[in-house]
Amino acid sequence: MKKILLETSFSKIYMIIMVIITLLILGGYFSYAMFTVTKEKENAISIVTGNLTYKLEVDGEEGNTLTVPANSRKDFIVTLSNPNNRVGRFNFYYEESLPDGVDIGYIEKDEFNVPPTETGINLEKVDTTGSSNTYIVRVANTTGSEISIELGVSVGLDYNDLELPENGHLLRKITSIGTVKEVIEDDIMNRLNYEDTEQTFVTGSNPYNYIWYSGKLWRVVSIDPSDNSVKLVTQWSMSAISYDNNSTNFEDSYMESWLNDTTVDGFLGNLREPDKFIKMDSKWNASMVSDGKLPSEEEGGTIVEDAAGLLNLYEYTMSGSSESYLNNGLYWWLLTPYNNAINNFFVLNTGQVNSLSVTNNYGVRPSINLKSEIKVESGEGTVDNPYRLEGDNDSNLSGTLLNTRYSGEYISFGTGENNLYRIVSHETEGLTKITSAEPLKENGKFKTMVFGDSVYYSNTNEVGSFLNGEYLDSGNYLTSEQVNMIEDNTTWYLGTVGSGASYRLAKYGDINMSNLTSNITISKVGLLRLGELMAGQFNRYENNASYWTLTLQNSSSIRNVKNISTSSESNTTNKFSIKPSLNLKSNVIITSGDGTLQNPFTLALE
Questions:
Q1: Could you give the CA distance from residue 600 to residue 602 in angstroms, rounded to a whole number?
Q2: Where are the domains of the chain?
């Protein structure tokens, strides 16, 4: 444990006081010491100078020890109090140098005071009752063991009294608002790897690199030093589709089309203002691996220019592969071809890398590059408090139409254990398609049922009958007010996507999207189709369940989404979970919330 010194620098004042005391004593006025320094209890600080007293508290408890577990970061609320009626000056410090892998500083927040500079800060009296100031002190510990640091305080009556001990160090300001690059670089929890001069990689199993943008949770992967753009990848799979039919080339593949489709049927078309946030001419290295590293454009590598792409094998490896934060317990495609046949690399739910045919339907974790000027406006970079970007951090949304919001945002909808939904898209003009955030539960377990006696979804097959009957009417899943928000007649597309076929055939009659499929049904509640946003998994495989889609594999089987974020086909008599989808009416408004998991939208009819 690092020891602290309590510095009291009253030498000049002391001399004056002694002279005054001597004169007073000689004059017979009084004969007691004017000031004392005491330690009231273990780790507590109390300085008394006449009627001037200071006390240090950490997280509401009197003391000064900051203890942080191995490989974690913690913010401490530190309060310095002056309960008396004299104005004083103080400054925080820690003694000696910090060990490698440990960082300490302060952060600013609106509700807290700004910590002092070298010149100190007044701890003002208020009438005769004194005052207290509260600060946030952050300690980051990337070592493999718990560490404790003791915070010191230098106290005086003016600037000249604020003398630090010989080995004392003032707390530095930690960037909490700035460009995404600055914020990521400033936090040692991100363990940046500078080995590659073209990309600076975030590493570690739990870096503080979460970002919430456009209704989706992202992770910062790397920084490009050439233009300071920042590469992101979604934390979870946004869908599950085949990479292509008979080619490992990213360019002109099903995957490239889905990622960069600017309509409601693809990924890019459902992002918020991509031209504002995203580097639209990003270069994606889709080369085969050679000697452990992908060849560059100058070396004849395969480079594709797009707004959205996937992480390649090299990027996954440089981030730490299976030991890194990128291992999310699901299957998902990488950008890198395995060979000249039709095999591509993908990540397994264990985090290991393997290769299989591009015709398989695996999870898609889209990747984008944020422009260098994009700034962090709030947040801590944690899963519960991710960084929020300037321009995507809306507040005061009460009265806003839900149909103006973004795919992925959370909604408080439903009842009991089934009370969370997410926006899918605005496929029908004016309406908002939503789906349950996870498959329906019943007494804590995922509800399962057979699809029915036909591969075509309808109000009369097993799943359709339940969703348009008991689900709507029983009161066990929805309130009557919520049922009234649902559009009565939605068109559900029942296309067929065979092995290695394009996701587009789930909705369209051909891959050029020139006409819609003729196989449809009309009902109030339906299911997601293959390739649709939110038809992936949003938790590790052990915490989720496989569920039905609307999409046919062939004339006798239906597509499902597996709990590992893949898609396969199944006979209609097998049992899988249910993830209802429905359209909310055009006059549904937001009454509160910001659309995040921690603060989902609440709704009402206008």
A1: 7
A2: 7-173, 178-370, 396-605
Residue 569 to residue 139: CA distance in whole angstroms: 50
CA angle (61, 64, 66) in 5-degree steps: 95
Secondary structure string (H, E, C) spanning 312-376? CHHHHHHCCHHHCCCCCCCCEEEEEECCCCCEEEEECCCCCEEEEECCCEEEECCEEEECCCCEE
Q: Is the pLDDT of residue 574 over 50?
A: yes
Residue 34's pLDDT is 25
Measured between alpha carbons, how far is 152 from 8 in angstroms, rounded to an integer?
Answer: 11
Q: Are 290 and 382 in contact (CB under 8 A)?
A: no
Alpha helices in 450-564 (DSSP H): 462-467, 470-473, 480-485
Over range 556-562, report the average pLDDT: 97
CB atoms within 10 A of CB 471: 23
Eight-class DSSP state of 320: T
Task: Say if residues 294 and 309 touch (Cβ distance below 8 Å).
Answer: no
pLDDT tens track for 266-279? 999 999 999 999 99
DSSP letters spanning 381-405: SSSSS-EEETTS-----TT-BGGGS
Among residues 229, 361, 245, the alpha carbon closest in space to that of 284 is found at 229
Write down the pLDDT at residue 332. Answer: 98
Q: Which of these ranges, 424-428, 539-543, 589-593, has the smallest mean pLDDT?
A: 539-543
Amino acid in position 416: G
Reading the block at residue 235, the tokens are 């934390």
Query: What is d(CA 420, CA 579) in angstroms, rounded to the nearest whole number?
Result: 12
Phi, psi of 190 (to 5 degrees): -85, -10
Phi-psi region of 50 (alpha: psi -120 to 50; beta: other; left: phi over 0): left
Q: How far apart are CA 134 and CA 119, in angstroms?
A: 18
387-389 and 210-213 beta bridge pairing? parallel
Question: In the chain, what are the helix, strand and coil shares in percent, each to the nearest 5?
Answer: 15, 35, 50
User: Are residues 333 and 313 in contact, defined by beta-carbon separation less than 8 angstroms?
Assistant: no
- First-to-final CA distance of the chain: 60
Please, is 248 exposed, middle or buried when counting C-beta atoms within 10 Å of its C-beta (0-12, 13-18, 19+)?
buried
- CB of 139 within 8 A of CB of 104? yes
Residue with tokens 């003791």: 150
Pair of tokens at residue 339: 């060979």
**pTM score, two decimals?**
0.87
Q: Give dist(CA 578, CA 271) in Å, integer.
A: 26
- Calpha distance 339→96 (Å, rounded): 55
CB 390 within 8 A of CB 376: yes
The two tokens of residue 401 are 């139409």
